[in-house]
Amino acid sequence: MLRMMTLDQRIEAAGELIGRVFADSSAPACVTCSFQTECMALVDLVIAQKPDIPVLFLETGYHFPETYAYRDQMTERLHLNLVNLASRQTVAAQESQFGILNQTAPDRCCGMRKVEPLFRGLDDYGVWFTALRREQSPTRANLQAVDNFRLPTGKQLLKVSPLADWTNADVWSYLKRRGIPVLPLYEQGYTSIGCAPCTTPPADPDNPRSGRWAGRKLECGIHIASD
């Protein structure tokens, strides 16, 4: 039987992993952040060791107003080096050319507004910290804390997920301990928060991501394993 770790042990282990990565790699590093709970826990841990690390936010143009307000609030509060990554097309231009893709072709919409901008942005870095957790979804059950990730350009990144084995309770307890407020949408029953047109409270209480894309999929395409 696996021994359950306390929150203090998880915090220590995550901090040690982050420290080892910074010590072992001279490559430029970044951390992606959607400003959900696990992202805030990760960012707090990473900036404790590298305060000026670029914090990459996917500016899809479709976020909830609450997400934008919270992003700006926490960026100021934590003095984040925020980098907004946007699609090559504005929302208006995309909808004019292709219609409402988040309704008709959500995979294509995610590809244009999330996957392509992020992969383009990541090409400047060699280390990528993510807030992925195994508990989040069946698609993430086999997540490795440290893995290699190849961009479409062929560039290899070190993809690091220090919270891989954290539970949802761990995340919330950490934020409470650190006095970090959460995105107000959680109070409305949301458990996984992305773009407003594609996010609802969970359909399945046992799957926090079941409120994404009306249950048609669980991933936008970013965290699909690369070869």
Structure at a glance:
With 227 residues, this protein is of the alpha/beta class.
What portion of residues belong to β-strands? Answer: 5-15%
Average pLDDT, all residues: 87
Instruction: Tell how many strands the DSSP assignment holds.
Output: 6
**Order of strands across the widest beta sheet?**
3-2-1-4-6-5
Distance between the termini: 32 Å
Work out the helix count.
Answer: 7
Order of helices and strands: HEHEHEHHHEEEH
Structural class: alpha/beta
Shape: globular
Uncertain stretches: 223-227
Indicate the radius of gyration in whole angstroms: 17 Å
| Residues in helix, % | 25-40%
Biggest beta-sheet profile: 6 strands, mixed
Please render the helix and strand layout as text:
Blueprint lengths: L6 H18 L4 E4 L4 H11 L6 E6 L5 H14 L2 E6 L4 H8 L2 H4 L1 H17 L4 E3 L16 E5 L5 E5 L7 H11 L49
Parallel strand pairs: 1-2, 1-4, 2-3, 4-6
Antiparallel strand pairs: 5-6
